[in-house]
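Hello again, I could really use a second opinion on something today. Take your time with it, there's no hurry, and the full record follows here:

___
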Amino acid sequence: MSDDVLLGLVLWLPVAGLLALPLVPRGRDGAVRALTLAVTLLDLLIAAWLCVRFDGSVAGLQAETRLWWIRAWGVEYRIGLDGVNVLLVGLTALLGPLVVAGAWTAVRRDVKLFHAMLLLIQFAMLGTLLAQDLFLFYVFWETMLIPMFLIIGIWGGERRVYATLKFVLYTAFGSILMLAALIYLVYTLPRAGVAAPFAFEYLIAHPPPAAAQGWLFAAFALSFAIKVPIVPLHTWLPDAHVEAPTAGSVILAGVLLKMGTYGFMKLGIPLFPAAAREFAPAIMALAVVSVIYGACLALVQTDIKKIIAYSSISHLGYVMLGLASASLLGIQGAILQMVSHGLVAGGLFLMIGMIYERCHTRDLAAYGGLARLLPAYSVFFTILTLAAVGLPTTSGFAGEFLVLMGAFDAAWPAFTQGHPLALLLSASAVLGVVLGAWYMLWFAERFLFGPPRAPHQPLADLGTRERLILVVLVVAVFAIGLYPQPLLRKTELAARQYQGYLLGARPAEGSP
């Protein structure tokens, strides 16, 4: 099969699995789980093949499919891989089967509906990443909301209704702003002789007048900032994470939060480069605030899920810092940090779900001495904790180090010209590394090595299924940390082109 056909399969296989689920007889929950796992595993294999084949030295889309969808409006079904989305597509495909395997014993009611929602959100997330038409992107962007709403609302905790409503209100507000800007953007651009005015390449090649870019960028940026989330638009996230089932938390941390940072890189800044350059210092300042504020809040939590939830705000702050730095190192570090955070935070949420199945509490005070009770569990938890801290040889170090290098690289010229604020912001971001080590090591010390407070009944250590899930994540974390160069090569050209929008000089197509 050609690459474009394979990429179409990556996108539509979850839909095929979704349509096949009703054929499974009632009461055959094991068959439902097996079918969903088989579909996501096949999806992963095809996506991995395409990611390996992706040539980072070639500009433009690869494995592209381009068909008319609504010809009268100029809307296309257009999907493809590029240097911006290729790693996130691989991450989404990887987490799919791990989420299904992680929920194998955790979800016992409405099993068929639950797995249908997992497949639907997998389809929506992949579609959002692969879409190369603004109308198609918006449809997938909104579709993601539906299954996550149901996953939290049906299988969530005691305050799931509150968390669900808060999640929907925040994201719907951002989506309305983006829709208004989308309509204005498309219908005020010159359309004479243009067959596909919604195509990303056309919109980027014809930016709106500088006078309109400010509010258009603000509308898109607010929608993306809510999804990241950037402080002070973050308050929906801890509630959503705490009340969501484990699978929902993994999807949120692993992929959904990256949709905001991906939106900035793919659309927000390329579509409105003049406004983006003006807003870049403010974005950097909010990113540093998110890094420090998220870390400080994580430090005072007693709910083990909230610790990881607030740490996500801090880690995504590094991503935004790298993207706004206009430095090649910072931009590539931001992309690596997106992937690393998906692996590490997803793994930590899976491990919290595993211990919750055994002890049925998220209160940190209820735990202690797990290193003696659950040695295998403790080894994996320690590895992921150190990756979250940014220990060298792990993916967390590769991403954060490049982001900080890029931030200092961007700030130094301003400092030498008598503008110390940029350097002060970059230096402040280093405080997030210290605070991150503080709250994560404090968490691990109490959780694994503190005075024994675990239930008196014997606790079973990790089973074969759980170990396989964690082995996959740990191998990926070390592979990226020890040898990130293949991933950097695949994203370098896209990062240079993105850098050009922020610097006001678009690189020539095909430039190295």
In short: The two ends are 29 Å apart (CA to CA).
